[in-house]
């Protein structure tokens, strides 16, 4: 008696009247049980079919239905509730294979072609599920508390979002006040509009005030506290503080912001001696100008009035949103409020970012003159004024010509002051934290794979954290499972984007914790209450009934719970084959494998933390002893599928 059964959905959504065991030639599939029904989405029908399959001795099911996601929820969940081990269900999406074949007027050739494709994928599903060996890995229940390093606007918004989602958070800020950038401003430019003083005050009150009501006491703020080291793994990180103390959290978020470093040598100026004292400097860094315009009273800013000013961006940091936004805002302000003659030197205007188009338009309307430069950076010469305080800056720049190449003569403009962009780097304090988490901080220019250089497209931190190590390019995630980075901590993010990061991270972390808890409960004995209508407890191999389980689909296994789905492909090491060569430890991009010294672990082989593993398969392909396999990606399953494909070729 076969252990494999096939359920065929015969509704119009799945594949018209071709979904028929006789037309498909069920006998050719070998000794299997096949049932077709028009009502596979009906829980009562599923209960009936489930009983019938069990009566026939079937233990593994292939479900040939419409789209996989829908079928998992509509068919998979009721099947699991009826006692089927979820890992022994294989879903085969058929709707696209039929593509209308079988409808009135379809040619016999098209019908036969569709049937042949369906036979192939069904057979692959049958062989695959027959070969499946899958045990859910053991997970520890995660700590439902999030450590947020950095109490700036992004970190605070994240904390409030988590609080609203019912997740505890602790905000760790090394300064004695929370708020970061928000503390310095009285108005904000968000989503193309100016958010005025009252709104900003309310936002500050809501985000910054430590006494602001925290629902259910879920938030904790620690100021004057520096996070210096993080150990542990997803679900159980331990953050060590300076001066002292520790905190155990399930997830960590780096919200440490970026740092701007002014390097005049990037602009061809000597590293010192370029500052001309007197009625204000000739050279400003972007941050210095931002601070001067933001902090000083209007009267103190009168020395800007009527000046000829040049902004130069895209030199120290290429295509930077942060400096482009700051430059556009301040250029417009100097033009409008102080009647300055303003020039804006940029390599191109292709920086993508919320609100940039309107800022650019406002600057144009205010009369800022844009100079699109090509090739090398503008040359800047400081000319002190003879016998007087102050001086001038001469900017010389090659311009593109309409016919290609450059115009013969460079543009030369003499200005009273010049505002230059800076290097945008991850915060210095990220370094030790990132080292303890084994992720790149992007600060160490020598050791990072892609060293910083003038004009580089984005902040080094964002590249090393996301584009080189985070192989799946999730935006607010780092290469480490359970560690997120938001706002300036992940790169060249301006304020609106930092706020978006915060709310995205809150949603992701909530989902991640929920999914992780569901995974942990897979291996617990006290699962949720047994639902009504479960008549097949004795058939179930996975322990007591619970409203979660894992379901196979071609190429992956996913876990589902009441709260959603989660991919569940994980690396497993065969202790007998492992030679402790450390290859997997070195190649794992997510730091999910460890080889512990003898005596520290009962296992004498590499150990995978299933919560940290993202199932990328890098270790399995690199292991010289072929000691690693992936759950639901086993060689046996692949070979079984390949054999079928060979037969049908
Ligand atoms: S690469 Fe393979 S043999 Fe080497 S430590 Fe890892 S699992 Fe063991
Ligand atoms: S599959 Fe292997 S390399 Fe990939 S994350 Fe998991 S343990 Fe690391």
Secondary structure layout plus pairing:
Elements: E1 4-9, H1 21-24, E2 33-37, H2 43-55, E3 60-65, H3 68-81, E4 89-93, H4 95-98, H5 108-131, E5 145-149, H6 153-164, E6 168-172, H7 181-184, E7 188-190, E8 193-195, H8 197-208, E9 219-222, E10 226-233, E11 236-242, E12 246-249, E13 251-254, E14 258-261, E15 283-285, H9 286-295, E16 308-312, H10 321-338, E17 341-346, H11 356-366, E18 369-372, E19 379-384, E20 391-397, E21 411-415, E22 417-420, E23 423-426, H12 430-437, H13 460-468, E24 483-485, H14 495-522, E25 549-553, E26 556-561, E27 564-567, E28 571-573, H15 583-587, E29 593-594, E30 607-608, H16 618-622, E31 628-630, H17 635-648
Helix pairs in contact: 2-3, 5-17, 6-14, 9-10, 10-11
The structure holds iron/sulfur cluster (2 copies).
- Count the E strands: 31
Could you say what the CATH topology of the largest domain is called? FAD/NAD(P)-binding domain
In which order are the strands of the major sheet placed?
2-1-3-4-25-26-27
Distance between the termini: 29 Å
Largest sheet: 7 strands, mixed
Number of helices: 17
Query: Any ligands, ions or cofactors bound here, and which?
Result: iron/sulfur cluster
Strand content: 15-25%
Mean pLDDT level = 76
Shape: elongated
Structural class: alpha/beta
Alpha-carbon Rg, integer? 31 Å
Low-confidence stretches: 276-280, 444-468, 525-547, 561-567
